[in-house]
Design brief:
Number of helices: 9
CATH architecture of the largest domain: Alpha-Beta Barrel
Number of domains: 2
CATH topology of the largest domain: TIM Barrel
Number of strands: 22
Strand order of the largest sheet: 20-19-22-17-16-15-2-18-21
Structural class: alpha/beta
CATH superfamily of the largest domain: Glycosidases
Strand content: 15-25%
Amino acid sequence: MRRLVHRYRARLIGLAAAVSLAVAAPGVAVTPSAVAVPAAISASVSVEAGRALATIPATGVGMNVAVYDGNMNHPDVPGLLKNAGTGMVRYPGGSYADGYHWQTHTVEGGYVAPNTGFDTFMGTVRAVGAQPIITANYGSGTPEEAAAWVRYANVTKGYGVKYWEIGNEVYGNGLYGATWEIDHHASKTATTYATNLVQYATAMKAVDPSIKIGAVLTTPGAWPDGITGPGDSMDWNHTVLSIAGSKIDFVIVHHYPIGNSQADLLGKPQAEIPNMAATLRSLINQYAGSNAPNVGIAVTEVNANAYKNTSPNGLFAPDEYLTWMENGAFTVDWWNLHNGTDCSRVTTVEGATDYDDGGILSSGASCEPPLNTPFPPYHGTRMITKLGAPGDTLVRAVGSTPIISAHAVRRAGGDLSVMLINKDPVNAATVTLSYSGFSPSAATPTVYSYLKNATSIGSATTGSATSQTVPAYSIVVVQLHR
């Protein structure tokens, strides 16, 4: 397999010229981050069981796959994705989508692996029990090509593909001076994209009016958000939504927070996501008219910029997924199933080997464990299945210190689960729990745990409904009954 690094990850350095990213040399250990906390951590978490934040969507936990990955449909993949609670799978793969022609299964200037065609992909998605989200080719395609894909998928084959993105990171087409996205249109402006987006939506919905169309936006607060490009009178998001806001069904952003240390990375979900989501909802309300309440938020690529295969990213993953869902996203899609590595930036992080591989599963590179070995983000993501299921209600949980992230779910039957994430790499935390709107049973709860550098999830009957010990750099889920 040709192992490629997602272009978005590489271009972050070029785009954020003012930001200095320190990358460890091969074989050099990364020093564990210092966390300014006492030697013994005590924390409290208050759960407001009657204060609903969101319903866990069936499509909430998503995953990207790419047609350059010859193992995206490996026989082990459906079971692995199903066990992680995956409800959405994105295809054909990031920036590749804007060069991908589905009828010929080719990518302009890119490699396409065998056995990665659309029908084979759909077989995997159905085996997982997930829904697909398809990125139609805006950069080198046409509305007619996209409409033909809808016809094949939903009329000819009866797949019922509901979610369709129009392009991937189209703002990377050179409008703002950086080019990583294919775009053959003579004009690269946001105005042009929005105008063409309406044409795509019209052509595609003429085939199947039930589908949902998504518009590419810049991530609020991240480059090039807020910049007015040449030929436009407003920035990308205001321009796109002022033209297409009444014609779309969801907006699309990507989130690759730049963590300058382990502690910095682990603070990003709480530091960035609520404001990003609020800004997106404000834009939707401004431009989508009476349909605004029905316009969703899709975060179709997320990952960390470092510590990708080690414990920090294992903690980051569930915090990222759940914080976005709590703030209204209907899908959060990890980049990527397999991403690959050239083994040139192998480091040691918190006593474990990091391969600089953006995949959630090993690609089987020479320096890596065997193909499809789960990395820590996989186990962290799987912990969400212990917290709740689609249809359950995310409720407010407030902690006394940012060292402990807390998420809580009121289950459909009335029981409650609480996830506690200890972001201190050295010290265990004693967490005191209190509840409003819920009276836990006096029985000892079942507690699931994913420990630092572990290769599986454990469980035990331990602690109490009001007190739990959370080991250093670990995730626990406390399942409580009434």
